Structures are given as structure tokens and as C-alpha cells.
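Figure 6 in text form: structure in, sequence out.
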């Protein structure tokens, strides 16, 4: 039998006779010191919905067991041996903020014993610890997660837990970088607490991990579409009011933001104490799009309002005179057609009517006047058509006066209708101009609101990140 086997059998048999239950100390009042450290291998996952941090670590335990000493010279100079942990006393160091449904968090590993009684145990472990998630600045968030370790049954007077080698955080030598998270800071601290119920101190070691989310993925999924849709909303105000696509575009953008909001809801905890600022930005954009669509309805209504009512004078001064000049829209407003003034319309109607009526009268009497040019003897001929016409001249004059009165009446009606039509056209033009100016005004209001909200949200996020 080799010296190593003999040493292990002899050591464990003697240890079993003493019993592995109970702290390996000489006196009851002695305090056993256990050093504890963690080497971070990988951040497996941070489940925002369940608020659980999964990490792959190597845990290191170091303490001194006075019953596991031997003289190396008696065993061929052997200074270290490996034994199963089930055969020796083990400290009951547990993760306090445990959030795992499994019964075992550590893989079994042999303990390394030294001839001076020192015990080193380095098991591999996958810890699932509860972590309070703050998603206010998602996806630019920085999360701070803690892992609290301590003895489950011993107080500080029985078992004193120390940081291994007085390290100030995780050991990062074998760390494998995560695709989603970047480690900003890690720390470890020993805490000693006293409770009103008990005079003994209670010791724990708390490891803190501060991680920042990598935003490259979310920039293309959540942020870039949001900015593009916000910019696309501006096009809503540049479409002509008579275009039916104005309403359709607004509704389509609203639906697109709703889809982004659903995608965001899938990535964040449903019972979070705060909502992400980007979610608030989505909702704000949906509100602005709703308002812009309603305002577009108002603009379209005003554009096609026509001559039903006149534009109030104050409204006309503010919109057409003031805002149109401020927005440099004077050249883009709807103007009257050239030659369509009321006076031009009246003159055109009067001249056309006069030509038609007089032309008919001249056609009726043309032959008679031509006969008059042949000589006077035609007047003395009772059978002459001109003689008969001459004799009925007083009646013709009376009829002519009546027709002139009718012409004047017809001209008055035409002039009134032309003036009324011109007034209606002017009112319709003014409403169209008011609609165009309002559309431009709403465009600038939405632009200001969009930039103000984006600046507020992203500026707050950058301040928090720095």
C-alpha cells in the first residue's frame, strides 16, 4: 500500500472515531475562522422578468482543522492529500438570497488537506441569486446585484467568516466575457450585524456585481425603429390636406409604435416598480401621433369647409397675416384666379347678355331697314311690309322699353349671383389658407415636443450611466 493511501486511511479512521460532527476546535469558546472567496467564470443570464441572476463561479473555502494534521516525514514527505468532503467536517456557508429551484447549487469536488491542518475546497457552482432589477433606463440600464453568503446555523462567535486573501471583489482571472452584459465594477465586503434578540454577532460576506447592458442589439430592435417612426410622423404634416393618405399614415404609425411597445413588454418585468423611459417615450409618441391625427382631421375639415361660414377676423389676422409670415408661407397660400374679381365677372355677364338680346332684335328688323334704303315711295305703299312696320312703330317702342327693363332686371340678378359666388370662393380660399397655416403650426409644435421628449429621456439616461 502506498504511503498516500495509508495516510488517507489512517487520517480518516482517526477522524471518524472523533466524529465529523461539531466544529474542529480545541475549546467550546474558540472561534473557527473560515476564509471565503469567489472566482467569476461567466454571467450566464439575468432574467429581468423573474429578477434572477445566474452566474458560473468557483467558490473557494479555506479553514484549519486541527484533527487533520500529520507529520509529513512519517509518510514519505507527503504534504497534501485529497479526500471526499463527506468524510470531514464542512462549514455550512449558504447563499442567503437563493433563487434556485434546484436542491444543489455546487458540484462535488475533493477537499485538499495539508499537513498543517489547512483545508482548501474549491467546488464549481452555478448560483441563481435574486436581484432587484431597475428597468427605468432600459436598454441603457446598469444593474447592481448582490450575493450574500454566511453560515446558516453558526453565529459570529462560533464561525467567523473572512474574505479570502482580503480580496475586494470577485477574482476575474478566468472570466469569460458576456455577450449581453459588461462588468463595470465588483466588490466584496464583510458585514457584522447585531440583532435585538441575540447578543452574538452575525457575520456575512456580500459580493456586489455592477453590470451594464450592451445596447448594440437593442439599438436596432427598439431604438432605431422608434427614431425612424418619430421622423416619419413629421411627414404627416407635409402631406396635402386633400390626400387620403394623411389619415392612413397616422394610423399605421400608431400601430407600429404599439408593436414596439409589445416587444418592449416582452423584454421587461411585468411587475416592475417603474416603467422604462423608452416605454414612456413610446407612449408619448403614441399620444402625439393620436393628437396629430386628430389635428389632421381638423385641418382637412377646415380645408374643405368651403363657404358655409366666414373666417373670423381675429382668426384670419392671427393665422394668415401673422403665422403665415412667420413660417414664410405667403407665397404658398391659395390665391384668387386672375380676372375673377366681382367687377370683371359683372362686366363679362353684362356684355354677353347685351349682345345676345340686341342681336336678336337686329336680326328681326334687318330686312325692314334694308328696305328703307331703297327710297321713300315704299312708305306710301299700303301693301309694303315696311309701311306696316312703320305704322306699328309706337307699339315696338313700348315693347322695347319693356325688354330693356327686363334686361336691367336680368343684369341685376347676374351681378348679385356673381358677387355671391365670389364671396363664397373667397371664404373657401381663406379656410384653405387657414388650414395650410395650421398644418405648418402643428408640424413645428410636434417637432418641438418630439425633440424635447427625446432630449429629456436620453439626457436622463446618459446622466445615470455616467
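Output sequence:
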Amino acid at each position: 500500500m502506498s504511503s498516500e493511501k495509508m495516510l488517507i486511511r489512517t487520517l480518516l479512521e482517526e477522524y471518524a472515531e472523533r466524529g465529523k460532527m461539531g466544529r474542529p476546535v480545541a475549546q467550546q469558546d474558540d472561534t473557527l475562522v473560515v476564509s471565503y472567496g469567489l472566482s467569476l467564470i461567466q454571467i450566464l443570464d439575468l432574467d429581468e422578468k423573474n429578477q434572477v441572476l445566474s452566474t458560473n463561479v468557483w467558490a473557494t473555502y479555506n479553514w484549519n482543522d486541527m484533527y487533520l494534521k500529520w507529520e509529513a516525514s512519517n509518510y514519505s514527505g507527503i504534504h497534501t492529500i485529497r479526500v471526499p468532503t463527506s468524510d470531514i467536517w464542512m462549514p455550512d456557508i449558504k447563499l442567503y438570497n437563493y433563487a434556485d429551484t434546484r436542491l444543489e447549487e455546487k458540484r462535488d469536488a475533493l477537499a485538499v488537506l495539508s499537513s498543517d491542518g489547512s483545508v482548501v475546497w474549491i467546488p464549481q457552482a452555478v448560483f441563481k441569486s435574486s436581484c432587484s432589477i431597475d428597468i427605468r433606463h432600459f436598454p441603457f440600464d446598469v444593474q447592481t446585484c448582490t450575493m450574500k453568503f454566511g453560515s446558516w446555523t453558526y453565529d459570529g462567535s462560533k464561525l467567523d467568516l473572512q474574505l479570502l486573501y482580503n480580496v475586494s471583489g470577485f477574482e476575474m482571472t478566468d472570466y469569460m466575457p458576456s455577450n449581453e452584459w459588461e462588468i463595470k465594477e465588483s466588490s466584496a465586503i464583510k458585514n457584522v450585524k447585531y440583532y435585538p434578540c441575540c447578543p452574538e454577532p452575525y457575520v456575512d460576506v456580500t459580493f456586489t456585481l455592477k453590470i451594464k447592458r450592451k445596447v448594440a442589439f437593442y439599438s436596432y430592435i427598439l431604438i432605431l425603429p422608434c427614431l425612424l417612426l418619430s421622423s416619419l410622423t413629421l411627414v404627416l404634416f407635409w402631406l396635402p390636406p386633400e390626400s387620403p393618405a394623411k389619415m392612413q399614415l397616422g394610423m399605421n404609425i400608431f400601430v407600429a409604435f404599439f408593436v414596439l411597445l409589445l416587444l418592449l413588454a416582452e423584454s421587461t418585468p411585468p411587475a416592475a416598480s417603474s416603467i422604462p423611459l423608452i416605454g414612456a417615450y413610446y407612449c408619448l409618441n403614441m399620444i402625439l401621433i393620436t393628437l396629430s391625427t386628430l389635428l389632421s382631421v381638423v385641418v382637412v375639415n377646415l380645408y374643405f369647409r368651403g363657404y358655409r361660414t366666414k373666417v373670423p377676423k381675429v382668426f384670419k389676422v392671427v393665422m394668415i397675416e401673422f403665422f403665415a409670415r412667420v413660417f414664410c408661407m405667403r407665397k404658398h397660400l391659395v390665391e384668387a384666379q386672375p380676372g375673377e374679381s366681382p367687377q370683371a365677372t359683372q362686366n363679362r355677364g353684362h356684355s354677353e347678355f347685351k349682345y345676345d338680346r340686341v342681336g336678336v332684335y337686329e336680326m328681326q328688323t334687318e330686312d325692314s331697314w334694308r328696305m328703307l334704303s331703297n327710297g321713300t315711295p315704299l312708305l306710301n305703299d299700303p301693301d309694303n311690309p315696311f309701311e306696316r312696320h312703320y305704322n306699328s312703330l309706337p307699339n315696338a317702342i313700348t315693347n322695347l322699353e319693356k325688354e330693356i327693363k327686363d334686361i336691367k332686371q336680368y343684369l341685376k340678378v347676374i351681378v348679385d349671383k356673381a358677387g355671391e359666388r365670389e364671396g363664397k370662393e373667397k371664404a373657401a380660399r381663406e379656410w384653405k389658407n387657414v388650414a395650410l397655416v395650421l398644418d405648418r403650426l402643428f408640424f413645428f409644435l410636434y417637432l418641438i415636443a418630439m425633440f424635447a421628449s427625446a432630449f429629456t429621456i436620453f439626457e436622463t439616461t446618459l446622466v445615470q450611466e455616467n
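Caption detail: DSSP finds eight helices and eleven strands in the chain.
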